[in-house]
Amino acid sequence: MGKYWRSAMGFAAAAAVLGMLSGCQTGTKSADGKETVTLGVVGPLTGNAAASGQVQANAVEMAVEEINAAGGIDGKYMIKLVKEDDEGVPAKSVTVTQKLVNQNNIDVLIGALNSSCTLADMEITAANKIPQITPCSSAQSIVEQGNEFIFRTTATDTTHIKTLLQYFRDKIKGKKVAVLYESSDFGTGAFSKIQEMASEYGAEVAASEMYNSGEKDFSVHLTKIKQANPDAIIIWGYYTEAALISKQAKQNGIEVPLIGTGYNSPKLVELGGDAVNGLIFTTAFTEANPDEKVQAFDKKYKEIYQQSYDQNAPQAYDSVYLWADAVKRAGTVEGQAVRDALLATKDFEGVAGIYNFSPNGEMVKTLMVVQIQDGKHTIIPLD
Predict the structure, then answer these.
(1) How far apart are the first and last CA of the chain?
(2) Residue 268: what pLDDT?
(3) Quick one: three-class SS letters along 337-350?
(4) HSE on the CB side for 170, CA within 13 Å?
(5) Cα dihedral value 275, 280, 281, 284, nearest 10
(6) CA angle in degrees (0–180, nearest 5) for 261-122-338
(7) Cβ-count burial of 312 within 10 angstroms (0-12 exposed, 13-18 middle, 19+ buried)?
């Protein structure tokens, strides 16, 4: 994190001030009298997490097209969608968010994907009183900044960790756990929480190793972890590295369960092949869920985009509808009014669950535990 993170945050703060001077959200009237409002989406469309970023963008696009096809928000507002690629890099996320605010005059931002990017660019949206909803960023610190304009539709790291540690205690019946985590806000924040919470579940963190995004060789990390003789290894990172870790764990003769979060992506099986069979992760959404709304979403997404997806898709899709619902209830797209309406959301039924927001923009979800079996998702009951 270090200098790079401080420079990104400094850039964000400066950009936020500029945004306050130039950012003003105003719609334009169409021939039928409806106002055009602008929705921005930011995430990695290139780089190591590009598959998840594209999924987020696709799902936002799907929701926007549905709303527009139905006559717009409350029959009054048609949505213009603008997508930007932040490459999963905080400084780039700040740059493209500033562009969305000052040049595209967005009324809402969906994103980012990476927690470090959301932490950087949410300063800009808040300074311009623009609601921002992240469907993907789970770092606990995001809702601990006192930022009134940030919301999220994904579960927190804390919720994921509770679910994982419950599974570790009740199903694996383990005592010693090792943690292999990414050197980002997403990874370091989660590791801190795991250390803090492990004892509540009768677990001891016997070993920990940190890796960098894009790392290819995990043999040294895995050798050290193997020497600690853990009952399971928590992997906290994205699908590219999780696939490589799974392969190399088998090559190193590691036979304990690999559990974690962050890598629920169709790319996981594509990259990891048979090596990821048995891998376990927590998620709020899986296409294996027989729920009618889930299956309808699954069918439509695959028909349109001819590919599978991860939980970022339904959470991004729900984020658009949550904002549209808030606009309808507020009777305006003015940022403060929509922010207040979002906060007042009550039992909104989405594809990825039921949504309510706490005063800090947080949403608590019940998660599922999923195991990869023969390349497919299988839900494992916790009870």
Answers:
(1) 39
(2) 94
(3) HHHHHHHCCCCEEE
(4) 12
(5) 120
(6) 105
(7) buried
Question: Which letter does DSSP use for residue 73 in this model?
Answer: B
Bridge partners of 181, per DSSP, are 210, 236
pLDDT digits (tens, 9 = 90+) for 288-309: 999 999 999 999 999 999 998 8
Prediction pTM value: 0.80
Amino acid letter at 223? T
Output the six-digit token pair for 315: 């959470």
Where the chain has pLDDT below 50, the residues are: 1-26
Q: What distances in angstroms separate CA 382 from CA 40, 257, 265, 332, one per listed residue?
A: 38, 16, 22, 43
What tens digit of pLDDT does each residue of 40-82 get?
A: 999 999 998 898 899 999 999 999 999 999 999 999 999 999 9
Residue pair 153/59 in contact by the 8 Å Cβ criterion: no
Spatial distance between the Cα atoms of 203 and 100, rounded to a whole number of angstroms: 45
Q: Give kind and range of the element (H or E) at residue 268.
A: helix 266-272
Identify the bridge partners of residue 117 per DSSP, sorted by sequence position. Answer: none
What values do phi and psi take at 151, rounded to 5?
A: -135, 160
Report how far Cα 342 is from the mean position of its chain's Cα atoms: 19
Q: Which pair of tokens denotes residue 260?
A: 């974690």
Question: pLDDT value at position 7?
Answer: 37
Residues 6+ apart with CB under 8 A from 221: 180, 209, 211
